[in-house]
Design a protein that fits this description.
Structural class: alpha/beta
Strand content: 15-25%
Helix content: 25-40%
Low-confidence stretches: 1-6, 161-173, 183-211, 235-243
Shape: globular
Mean pLDDT: 85
Distance between the termini: 55 Å
Number of strands: 22
Number of helices: 20
Largest sheet: 6 strands, parallel
Radius of gyration: 28 Å
Amino acid sequence: ILLLNRMVRSLHVLYGSQTGQAKSIAEGITSTAIERGFNAQCSSFDELRVDLGILDLSVMVVSTTGDGDLPDNCLKYFRDFKKAGFSDDHLSNLRFCLLCLGDTNYTNFCAGGKTVNELITAKGAKPLLDVVCADDATGMEDVIDPWTEKLWSVLPDPFTGDSSNNPDVSSRVDFLSLKDIDNSAGGRAFSILDKPFPFKCDQERPVIPNSVVTPPNLRLPSLPRPMLELKFFSLPGQPQAEQPYFGMASPLKYLLLSEVVRLSGEHSEKKTLMATVEGDFDYKPGDSFSMVVPNNPSEVTRLLVRLGVDHISDIPIQKFVLPAARVNSLVHIPEVSTLRYIFTYCVDFMSVPLKKAFFRMLADFCQDKKDSDELLLLSSRQGASRYDELRTGMLTLTDILFLYPSCVPNVERVIDSLPVLLPRPYSFCSTPLEDKARFSFVFNVVDIPSSEKRKARKGIATGHIESLHDSGSYNHKIPMFLRTQNTFRLPDDPMTPVIMIGPGTGVAPFIGFLKHRYHQKRADPAFRCGDMLLLFGCRTEQSDLLFRDDLSMLQREGILTELLVCFSRDENDSGLKYVQDILRQNVEKFGKLVFEMSAVTYICGDAANMAKDVNEALVDIFAEYKNIPVNDARSLVIQLRQQKQIKEDVWT
């Protein structure tokens, strides 16, 4: 009764999330806040239906996408926020805590969250905690766990005027319950189609003619009477909405994978493939798309066997979300499904590393105390070094379960602890000017060898397409969608020079750039464009120089002004091994292009090593060309990025 007489404090938990990680953290904070007594609400910034200025308390979780950009589901909100012209004290009533998510492998670390912090503090918002940045490259939990612990100590009491301690939160919460569907009482069974989600079943069926022409002069039996009609069941809980995934710039389509060819030589250490897809995406060179691919069937079976549920993995089950579950959690699990379907299409059990909370959960299901103690250590702060060993070892869930044989976790706890299986992004290496109905993309097959603790495996998407290539099994449809964040495009003015830096498969979008200019020239002989320089690095000239014939043709046609190549494994007298070496050897050339001709520099490829090294090379050549200190040159690089004169499309 006393509780009802107190005013419950409101808490708005807001997120900007591109892949769902920030959203998941925000939902977890919301659930805990509700348990502690807050009237807590969770939404993306774009879903916020009130002015930030009327809020007095908020927790924010913001990630970064693209080249230091805000995530899609908060981009519009802050675009409008900047245009509104609010006074400097507009948010003076707002107290907030902000968690930024990022990856130091990328140049603009946590730039999205830092942008939000700058915008709201400039309008008077006051932080209750120092803004922190969690680094996915080294393990976000080392920052997130202590931050969330401190969060509850700085937030005001949820009940106005009450100074009692917040209620304890249970250390173990179960979210999901799966039950066999009982058909004995007339309930209907569901057939789970062996097909990736999401799908529009009626669009995927072959067209059946309404009538059959009967050849003359044949005595035929009567046509069998139709007795059955099949209605394809669109699984509830699957992403059937207009925007089932973050960052969608088009509806999801099933597109035909018509051809896969090998680009790298047979003796190359990397297997590079180019896939061609029959599709009508409205894209431009530099854009990217995502594929929705299933987990490898043999890996699914291996995990189901290890969990001891392979014998019941094809029995229909029904999902029941328990009261302790976070808001909107587990929506990626169908209401009716099978265990095999869930582990094939819905959850990512191949991702590494597992969260520390996952190890904490596994420890509760060990029969051997030694296994339990080791898993508890892995989940603790004291076990950080052991946890890092697992990170670098790239062990999957199945690998870990075989390391601890007495651990047999409940399958529900495994499912509700695993992340959703996300689409895989790729860049176009073609232009619609060449063929509007087809496009191509390039990738290296991810091949992770075996180790003492790890079974050999392939990448989920690249392994899936490689298997089609090796079997010659084309005419295979894969669900895909066009992605947003399309700033990695050619300049609007074709006379603007471009510098393209793309080692390995990073050359893919630049092939699209060059072919686009080539077809523009073919369509209009009077067409002219500025200089186009390509810096391309690979291991060996004989086996790894991708698109050799295309590049030669584009040079002959005058589209590719200059091709500057280097080979890291070949012996040569030039001393050039990497693309950053080419930059440093041509200070005057690149300095003049950037500062006197306003050239746009594009960088595509590996974020962990190449992008960082190229960024440092740009700092060095700008410092030398303009005769300025290195720190000033570093600030100049940041300025050029903000002006979109340096653009990146990089990945880890």
